[in-house]
Amino acid sequence: MGNVQILLRQHVGAPCQAIVKAGDAVEKGTLIATPTGLGANIFSSVYGVVEEVTDDRIIIKPDEEQKEEFVPIKEGTKLEMVKEAGIVGMGGAGFPTGIKLNINLAETPMGEMDPEINPELPEGFKLEHSYILINAAECEPGLEHNIQQLEEQTDKVIRGVKYCMEITHADKAIFAIKKKHHKAIKILDAALKSEPDISMHMMADIYPMGEERAVVRECLGVNLTTTQLPSAARSVVVNLETVAKVAEAIDERKPCITKNVTVRGKLVGGNEAHVFMDVPVGVSVGELIEKAGGIDGEYGEIIMGGAFTGKSTELDAPITKTTGGILVTMEFPDLHGAKTGLLVCACGGSEERMREIASKMNANVISVCRCKQAIENKPGAPLKCLRPGNCPGQVKNNMQFKKDGCEYIIIGNCSDCSNTVMASGPKMGLKVFHQTDHVMRTIGHPLYRTLKISKEVSQDIDF
């Protein structure tokens, strides 16, 4: 194992403050950084010696021999232990879980539902129950670590769900899972026979079913505005891996020091997913790629995260508490300076990421449009989709691209958005690339173009 680099910012909020110095010996579970504001505790993931502390990271040289034992967190109430363990949203968002769970859902009133985006709801609609919604959608295409954990550690996951229910006083829980995961559904269904307050909701295999407000919409039938939290629907959404970490913190007094990661792409041996469980936080991207077989020849880029929302990275970059995927892609096509438009969507890459991809394709960007549902709640804030995964059309943007003289467009849209682009773009002579194309082609996944499956999914479980 090479040096472990533990970043001081692995969550929403401010960077943590290091409380160790060069030369200090550390163990698995040694507290090495604490929040300076909104944030979460950070622990050493290995036994070793601190080599250097910089402005943004703590670099540790691991001992040759690594023991399984870890320094346990302090005992306390269940919520206190979740906070102490430094758990954050493991699905990528990174919001401190101890803060998210610090709510009494039993006493939380239903928020006001916007009738424009909820025309089917009767006036004065109220939810009878309060909910923990478990995001088991494995939203990003090609990743498999959430579903593998659900299949292999079902009991731990359910314990974590019940702890989350207890902490928040929720009386119901729902697993939001894609209907295609037949094996996981069968295992979970058997495990829930004795859990009358926990159920499953089947979802279509389209992106972005795991977006927080999409989970609320799919499970509870209400559309939240771009500024409303799930608490407005008397619910808290928690990633599947996160609820497992909650169980570890409470049952084992284990700090959040490892991450489950899918490594996939242009690798020696093929493009199948390699799932690595309990990887020490701070291990390098390159080390995991080598563990998966190594890169097969020339490649386009390495992405940390998912194909839609991940960012390009380097071999020496460290994984964090929120790293879900490492994707090695095929080489980019060359557009030879062709005039190109970018269609930026709230559900995909930012404009900066889209411009990076365009540059790697040697495209000449002459026009930029936003998806008509992409909302900027305040200047400079990340875009939010008005109705995640449910798009009414993109004709106006396509017309603008055509007017601006674009030959190609690069889009970063969800499944439904991409479908609406394809309804008019090619008819106008616009050649379409999706920002995920180089990933999808590498892993053998269908390209995001015309939506070939229904967005409606029967809730009946059919084995």
Automatic annotation (TrEMBL):
Coiled coil: none
InterPro entries in alphabetical order: Ion_transpt_RnfC/RsxC, Nuo51_FMN-bd, Nuo51_FMN-bd_sf, PR_assoc_PrdC, RnfC_N
Signal peptide: none
UniProt keyword annotations, A-Z: 4Fe-4S, Electron transport, Iron, Iron-sulfur, Metal-binding, Repeat, Transport
Domain NADH-ubiquinone oxidoreductase 51kDa subunit FMN-binding: 82-247
Residues of the RnfC Barrel sandwich hybrid domain: 4-57
Name of this chain's protein: Proline reductase-associated electron transfer protein PrdC
The organism of origin for this protein: Claveliimonas monacensis
Gene: prdC
